[in-house]
Design brief:
29% strand; four-stranded antiparallel sheet; six-stranded mixed sheet; single chain; alpha+beta
Length: 328
Amino acid sequence: MLFNKTTARTGLKSALCIKMGRLIGGVLLFLYSCNNGGSIATVNPGILNETTLADTLPQPPFDTVILGFDVNIGCFFEYMDTLVKRYDSLVPYTISEHLIVWANPWIIDTLESTDYYRMKEKGIFVYDQQALYVLKEGDTIFIPNGEKAKRLLEEQKQIVIDLNIPEFKLRILSGNDTLYTFPIRVGQNKSRFLAMSNRQTDLRTSTGVGTIVRINKDPRYINPVDNKVYKVTNRDDGKVTLLPRIPWIEPELNGIRKGHLIHPTTNPKTLGKAYSNGCIGVREADAWRIYYYSPIGTKVVFRYDLYVVNELGDTIRLKDIYGYAKKF
């Protein structure tokens, strides 16, 4: 099984993944190719440091990075941070992790495929999601040039994260187009004392309009009821695994940060239910795509619309899960 193979290699790869953003020069071999003559600049890791790296990187115009090593999820964000740091200083526009991934949509597809339940459908049990490789030696990552970067940045500005609470759906919109629709879980219709906030808290997911204000790429899983920190999770199939490393996203609604995070759940059987302590739970695969369509500043709309149009074009009334209609 992949779990056994992955575990056997984790120790070796962990030695290579020591905060690449800081120690990349002494550990890894980078291969860069640029479009000025198709040349490839090879960096010797034995002599690499901040100064020599800047000297050996190709100057614009350039368009590709060829990986000389494998990157697992445990090292993925550190590697992406390294790309951003190096290339952002070489171009007159802002390079970000989201921009690079938008220019390489296959990366999202690959990350989505690491979903525990997708792997299970293939007959593969994954205990440690962070040990799965998502970038492979020889893979090519395109760094968008000025015109493409400008177009992608304009496209990002059009994105809206739209969430209809009683419908249990989150949509990624671009203008009048719905790009993706995902099932979600929302907050329970009750209040309870939460140790995390040290007060009685309304668990219902709030409505409002705002923006994404914070991203946590290395979240801790804490039960807000008793502040217990989790290291493992019980899956829907009864298996126990380590918790995945997938970013959590925090929106601000009507100028208030209510703690209604958008994050993956390891128990997708809870989707389509008012089940959480206020947060928005999504499938692991969906969480990756939502993350890359939700950079800081992305507009979000949390609404409570009971009347919606279904797939057949008929207007239907949803169940009033919070009883709001009774107040009017």
